[in-house]
Amino acid sequence: MIGVGSNLSPVSPGRLQALVDGVFAIAITLLVLDLPRPEDSTRLAHDLLNDWPSYAAYLVSFITVGLVWIEHHGMMSGLRYVNRRFIERTLLLLLFVSVIPWPTALAAQYVREGGASEQTAAFLYAATMMLMGLSMTLGWRYLNGHPDLVAEQARPAFPAGARRALLASLTYLPALFLAFLEPAASFLLDAAIAAYFAASRTEVPALIHRAALERDS
User: Fold this and answer.
1) Sign of torsion, CA 39 45 46 47?
2) pTM of model > 0.90
3) What is the pLDDT of residues 65-91, one digit of tens each?
């Protein structure tokens, strides 16, 4: 990476967390900016309701990005310091987080078009979500393999975090295949995945946070 030496000394996770929070905040803001704003409408309520795919795509993306932020925040709260390799994996995650508004806008625009355009939009949406999850998995797995970066009290929670991230990523595989067979079903599966992981209980972030508090006490 340009301007970063291969022997970058371990640094406090605080600065990296600030970058992560900023990228997530911008991604969510861009999602909002893509919501429909009919111009010169004489039937505003009708026109707004007619754009329901935009609201649905926004909601699914917002929930998914929010869940990833919660998991990543839990991960970061258990770290003693970060090194170059973990920073690189975090930047890979931010690459996919920052691009989320693009497939979301495409999904909202082409969900009712039919044909190749709808298939492409469905595939890009599911692929972006899966790649975001896989990049998150890389971060968990790297930390699990480098326990020196992690507070001792938090280390037992990291294997579970890696498994949950991998499971979340792989659930998008059926959505990728459905994109070419039945794009609407692919979008519905994306929504179902977001709903499931939003409703499911995970103690991983809480365990890591408590461990961090014990570490600092």
Assistant:
1) positive
2) no
3) 999 998 898 888 888 889 989 999 999
